């Protein structure tokens, strides 16, 4: 009888050491040992906390050579919106502040001021960095416009525009050209006044009709445009009297346009990135 009691005690003690393991509330099995095995980038680290605590604590971690974290991939989301109204662009990245610039980082930059001729970018107060064209040396010079998103790439020294800059020579100029069935330029209808501001980003064709109540006028271009950009202006003189229209800020014209009652005139300009040069004009249409 005493032997039977001893055997029952040993059996009970051995059974008490078994561990039942469940995953997602579904049983896997009951065994005396639980083995934690690392795999697919997950690393298990366990420690024996001694007889006093009577437990072993395990903490999972990851192998960074296999699993990339949010910070290691980019350190943050890459949308950068500058709204300070200057070419000293600054922005704060959403959700988590950038701690440092790393070579290879790319950002979508949207600014509210055109970069002409030079500009810089400061993200999360890490520090201002000069913006260059894709060659890494030339200033943007008007290739970065207000409200137009541009990818910028940090090369370890400067931010480079991925959408503009010096192009390398190619075997065929056709690779640089745009071929289409037709191209229709947008037209801006300008309200006639003593001083008319022509919005160069509103389209390539701009039209105004003179008013006898206003009299003579001056047209100013809002910006000097982009190098190589063309622009046409249509001026329709009212029926009552001839109006003189002068060309002011950001224009290099052949002089004021002397209108004729009921007649129209067209003028063509081309930009060098700083001002608009008159190419041709046709009057008395």
Describe what you observe in this structure.
With 285 residues, the protein is mostly beta strands. It has 3 domains: 40-73, no CATH class; 74-161, no CATH class; 187-282, Jelly Rolls (Sandwich), CATH 2.60.120. The protein has 3 helices and 21 strands. The chain has helices at 2-16, 50-53, 70-73; strands at 19-23, 26-31, 42-48, 56-62, 79-82, 88-91, 106-111, 120-123, 128-132, 150-154, 159-161, 187-189, 195-198, 205-209, 217-221, 230-236, 244-247, 251-252, 257-258, 264-271, 276-282. The strands form 5 sheets. The protein has a 7-stranded mixed sheet with strand order 5-7-10-11-9-8-6, with no helix packed on it. A 6-stranded mixed sheet has the order 12-14-16-20-21-18, with no helix packed on it. A 4-stranded mixed sheet has the order 13-15-17-19, with no helix packed on it. β20 (264-271) and β21 form a beta hairpin. The protein is rod-shaped and about 110 Å long. The N and C termini lie far apart (127 Å).
């Amino acid at each position: 009888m005493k032997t039977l009691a001893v055997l029952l005690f040993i059996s009970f003690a051995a059974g008490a050491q078994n561990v039942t393991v469940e995953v997602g509330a579904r049983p896997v099995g009951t065994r005396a040992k639980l083995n934690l095995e690392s795999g697919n980038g997950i690393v298990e680290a366990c420690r024996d906390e001694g007889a006093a605590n009577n437990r072993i604590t395990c903490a999972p971690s990851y192998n960074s050579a296999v699993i990339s974290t949010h910070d290691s991939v980019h350190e943050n989301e890459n949308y950068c919106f500058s709204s300070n109204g200057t070419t000293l662009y600054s922005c704060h990245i959403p959700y988590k502040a950038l701690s440092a610039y790393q070579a290879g980082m790319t950002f979508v930059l949207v600014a509210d001021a055109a970069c002409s001729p030079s500009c810089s970018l400061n993200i999360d107060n890490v520090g201002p960095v000069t913006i260059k064209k894709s060659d890494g040396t030339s200033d943007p010079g008007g290739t970065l416009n207000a409200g137009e998103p541009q990818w910028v790439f940090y090369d370890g020294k400067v931010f480079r525009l991925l959408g503009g800059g010096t192009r390398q020579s190619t075997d065929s100029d056709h690779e640089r050209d745009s071929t289409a069935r037709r191209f229709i330029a947008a037209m801006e209808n300008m309200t006639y006044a003593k001083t008319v501001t022509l919005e160069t980003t509103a389209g390539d064709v701009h039209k105004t009709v003179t008013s006898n109540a206003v009299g003579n006028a001056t047209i100013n271009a809002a910006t000097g445009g982009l190098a190589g950009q063309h622009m046409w202006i249509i001026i329709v003189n009212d029926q009552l009297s001839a109006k003189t229209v002068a060309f002011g800020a950001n224009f290099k014209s052949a002089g004021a346009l002397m209108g004729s009652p009921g007649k129209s005139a067209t003028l063509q300009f081309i930009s060098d990135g700083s001002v608009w040069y008159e190419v041709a004009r046709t009057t008395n249409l």
